[in-house]
Amino acid sequence: MADKKKNAPLPASSAGLLRFFEDETKGVKIDPKIIISMPISIVAVSWAIELLLAP
C-alpha cells in the first residue's frame, strides 16, 4: 500500500505543464524580489543617463 502512494501520478495542471517537487536543487538561491528589481533598475538608470546626458 505505501509503495503505491509514493509512486502515485502527479495531478494534472495546465495540461501537465506545471509540476511541483519537494526536492531542493543544488545551486544559488536568489530572492525573486531581486530578480524582478534588477531589470527595472537597469531600465531606470539607462533612462536617467539618457535624460541627463542628452545634448
Automatic annotation (TrEMBL):
InterPro entries: Preprot_translocase_SecG (IPR023531), SecG/Sec61-beta/Sbh (IPR016482)
Subcellular location: Cell membrane
Functional description taken from the UniProt entry: Involved in protein export. The function of the beta subunit is unknown, but it may be involved in stabilization of the trimeric complex.
HAMAP family, alphabetized: SecG
Assembly mode: Component of the protein translocase complex. Heterotrimer consisting of alpha (SecY), beta (SecG) and gamma (SecE) subunits. Can form oligomers of the heterotrimer.
Keywords: Cell membrane, Membrane, Protein transport, Translocation, Transmembrane, Transmembrane helix, Transport
Cellular compartments per GO CC: plasma membrane
Transmembrane segments: 34-54
Membrane topology annotation: Single-pass membrane protein
Biological process (GO), any one: protein transport
Designated name of the protein: Preprotein translocase subunit SecG
Family per similarity comment: Belongs to the SEC61-beta family.
Gene from which this protein is expressed: secG
Parts of the chain on the Cytoplasmic side: 1-31
Pfam families: Sec61_beta
